[in-house]
Amino acid sequence: MAEKSRIGVTGLAVMGANLARNIASRGVPVAVHNRTTAKTTQFMQDYGHEGDFTGAESTEDFVAALEKPRRIIVMVKAGKPVDGVIEELTPLLDEGDIIIDAGNSHFPDTVRRTAECAENGIRFMGVGVSGGEEGALLGPSIMPGGDPEAYAEVEDVFTSIAAVVDGTPCCVHVGPGGAGHYVKMVHNGIEYADIQLIAEAYDLLTRVAGLDATAIGKIFEEWNTGDLESFLIEITGKVLAKTDEKTGRPLVDVIVDQAGQKGTGTWTAIDALGLGIPLTGITEAVFARGLSALRDERKKASATLAGPSPEGKEDRTDLVEDIRQALYASKVVAYAQGFAQMRAASIENGWDLDLGAMATIWRGGCIIRAQFLNRIRDAYAEHPDLDNLLMVPYFTEAVANAQDAWRRVVVTATEQGVAIPAFSSSLSYYDGYRTERGPANLIQGLRDFFGAHTYKRIDGEGSFHTRWSQDGTEVQTD
Ligand code: 6PG
Predict the structure, then answer these.
(1) Which among 17, 222, 425, 429 is least buried, having the fewest CB atoms inside 10 angstroms?
(2) What b/e readout covers 33-61, taking b as 16+ CB neighbours within 10 angstroms?
(3) Which numbered atom of ligand 1 lies nearest the CA of 263?
């Protein structure tokens, strides 16, 4: 056993425990700690033999077990528990020690904690970790943010435990302050959009094409061999193929249709609203979970509100392929929007995010890992200042090829009364984005009418106001 551990992990629920085991599996001595001592004891019993672990019962023992500068990974529930741990650690730490919050913290909290810790000479890092329990153990995607010098102290450990794709670890320093947790937040937002699009495809295949879960599972399995190849498409096939032990029916048919959420999708949507970035795919996905939660209201409304009900008799031959293409095109839009949001945030916060690197570290380990991200990485390699991914020839063509099918799916779903908020809003975004002259001229006219908010003219500089309710003349205001 090493005299002092190279790194510590506090918070030994599954994610923390698995991260500690992953680190130890690389030959790194790890000190482990949990607020409830029984958890530490259990951890040492279950996994102590796997590596060079020091189980610490008290926070004092934990800190004392670490070499300097101390590197402490905090893996507790986002919110107040993180502040609680920092408060407890602070008096025991020395100048230059590093606290690493590897949970799903909201980035403004990370910015605040970075400043608070700095007052005590402690270096704080907000690190996004994606991949769920299995990823934490076998290789997650890691999005470290914070002081680059602090990162240099843990870089070797992080890159050694991260997933690897084509020889490249899925871990790169994202940027200062809250950048790491910001990027993880957008990752989760994209995860919401991806999942919602999959759910809409499943709904159409069930209710419009009239297929059962097993058949749809096979379709997803097949889709996973093409452009859509990704972890989420792969596990959709597996979830749909699972039979319920109790009833013998497909498990998915006995799961209640109410989606839970822990907040990261909502944060992404709120942040996009603040930045003025249209983030329709992710935001509709968040709203769709909200609508799913209104189960009792939906039950009443289903017996009251008029509208068509799909009969599940649509000719399947072309429909299945149309849905695949609609899913792909909508996915391109969701990623284009998420990356546009990161670009805007990077400019706003001076983070200098390397968007190609973000696509690179999302290729493995994380929940949204997909083939497709190689294309996004290539796009930014060629055009680092790209406004919108849709403008890169690969994606321009992909959507151009898919759009007829996409439009047919939106029409069919609308005619048959199937809600497809992410498919349809993505298509509207696409059509809006490719419209040179939209209808906002009228919005400006109305705003000027009721509030003298002024408008610009297409034929000259300056701002103008029309005296709508007076003599109808136009005046230049600046
Ligand atoms: C990940 C996941 C992980 C978690 C989500 C689930 O990247 O490993 O995103 O962070 O599973 O937070 O989010 P919801 O509970 O909000 O769906």
Answers:
(1) 222
(2) bbeeeebbeebbeebeeebbbbbbeebee
(3) 16
Question: Candidates 1.10.260.40, 3.40.50.150, 1.20.5.320, 3.40.30.10; correct CATH number of 440-476?
Answer: 1.20.5.320
- Residue 311 CA to residue 316 CA, distance in Å, equals 13
Instruction: Please state the atom number of ligand 1 nearest to the C-alpha of residue 289.
Output: 17
Is residue 52 within 8 Å of 29, Cβ to Cβ? Answer: yes
Nearest in space to 71 (alpha carbons), one of 99, 110, 102 = 99
- Express each pLDDT in 398-420 by its tens digit: 999 999 999 999 999 999 999 99
7-177 is classed in which CATH architecture?
A: 3-Layer(aba) Sandwich (3.40)
Using the predicted structure, report yes or no on whether residue 317 has a pLDDT greater than 90: no
Q: CB atoms < 10 A from the CB of 293, how many?
A: 15
Burial of 475 (0-12, 13-18, 19+ CB in 10 A): exposed
What is the residue with the minimal CA distance to atom 11 of ligand 1?
Answer: 132
Does pTM top 0.90 for this prediction? yes
Per-residue confidence (pLDDT) for residue 316, from 0 to 100:
84
Q: With a 6 A CB cut-off, is 261 part of the ligand 1 pocket?
A: yes
* 7-10 and 71-74 strand pairing: parallel
User: Which residue, among 116, 120, 180, 171, has the nearest Cα to 147 in the 3D structure?
Assistant: 180
